[in-house]
Specification:
Blueprint (H helix, E strand, L loop, with lengths): L1 E4 L2 E6 L2 E6 H13 L2 H8 L3 H15 L4 E4 L5 E4 L1 H17 L6 E11 L2 E8 L2 E8 H7 L6 E4 L1
Antiparallel strand pairs: 1-2, 2-3, 4-5, 6-7, 6-9, 7-8
Length: 152
């Protein structure tokens, strides 16, 4: 079960409630997208040690790892299955908790650009909406012209 609070949410683990702060969720999101703990540290403006400490405290409370790392030159990190599940559960619940009036159905009519970002144009009745998003996000979503999307 997931309980969302303004700056955190809780999950039930073995009959007890474990609170997960928004900072840990952001760390998990960044590690998933960028593949390093250093990237999370830089993006959040928190020391590397602070990021590691936040993750380790939650891992200890949960009794399982959330992030696997490979040390050395070109160090990489990825979410474990549990880390993926926690992030996915949070994101899907947050999406579902939005009111219907904030969800606008549409159809992708163009994707322009390349490199780091692109402009996605979505036809929503009666308007056309454009958004600048990263090409990494486009690839991760598998977004293509003609796709039906929900605009938030």
């Amino acid at each position: 079960m997931l309980i969302i609070k303004p700056r955190s949410f809780s999950i039930l683990v073995g009959g007890r409630e474990v609170e997960i702060g928004s900072r840990v969720i952001e760390i998990l999101r960044i590690v998933k997208m960028r593949g390093t703990i250093k990237a999370a540290s830089e993006e959040l403006g928190v020391s590397y040690r602070g990021v590691i400490g936040a993750i380790r405290r939650l891992e200890k409370e949960l009794g399982t790892k959330l992030i696997e790392t490979r040390r050395g030159r070109g160090a990489k990190a990825h979410l474990t299955k549990v880390g993926e599940e926690i992030l996915g559960m949070y994101l899907s619940t947050k999406f579902e908790s939005m009111s219907f009036r904030n969800k606008i159905p549409g159809r992708v009519i163009s994707i322009e650009g390349g490199g780091v970002s692109a402009i996605v144009t979505v036809e929503t009745y009666p308007s056309i909406v454009k958004a600048l998003i990263t090409t990494e996000a486009i690839e991760e979503l598998g977004l293509k012209v003609g796709d039906t999307v929900t605009w938030l």
